Amino acid sequence: MNSRAATLDSGGPAAAEAMVADAVAAPARGGAMKFAYASGSRPLDGFVIKRGIGRGGFGEVYFATSDAGKELALKHIERNLEVELRGVGQCLNLKHPNLIDLYDIRYDDQGDAWVVMEYVAGASLKDTIDRVLPYYEAEIAPALRRGERIIVSAHGNSLRALEKHLSGIGDADIVGLEIPTGQPIVYELDDDLSMTDRYYLSER
């Protein structure tokens, strides 16, 4: 039986950081993303969209301004509504220097949910991969080879970097990968640290 396991988790306070990662995710090389709402659109009363900046399994994220001129991010929730709203609701009142501010959950005229949150410009997914993989090789991989079980709790792009490495996900697919809030993913690895199984902890 395989004794090596790594668990990726975006739960707890780090869930708010996952929102940042979605907001700044870079498009795959070779073409720009296409978004449902163009610059100048007002799908949500009181806000003007300036540009799309990211897409994940839950929906699209836009850079926008309020009618008062405040710059912020709007996340249009398109899928997995219950899971995403539960995660956002748990983080609405969290305040910490290392977490973005989640201002509100609003609904448009069609009844679609939008998360209104702080906009933070950040590193691209490529930059995050370049930072995360050396840490994985220096700290996590040696511990796994010693037979230790490792829990990794981090923001979305850092987890995507590990997912890409462990699962061999291609550049075009990794950008759209959404890691659900509060649902740990378990990796079982062989002696060479190649993946033998991957599943959500709640499934076993």
Main attributes?
29% helix, four-stranded mixed beta sheet, alpha+beta, five-stranded antiparallel beta sheet, 5 helices
> Given this structure, which CATH class of the largest domain is correct?
Alpha Beta
Order of helices and strands: EHEEEHEEHEHHEE
Number of helices: 5
How many angstroms separate the termini? Answer: 15 Å
Characterize the largest beta sheet: strand count, sense, and whether it forms a barrel.
Answer: 5 strands, antiparallel
Structural class: alpha+beta
How many domains? The number is 2
CATH superfamily of the largest domain: Phosphorylase Kinase, domain 1
Strand order of the largest sheet: 2-3-4-6-5
The name of the CATH topology of the largest domain is Phosphorylase Kinase, domain 1
Which runs of at least 5 residues are low in confidence (pLDDT < 50)? 10-31
Radius of gyration: 18 Å
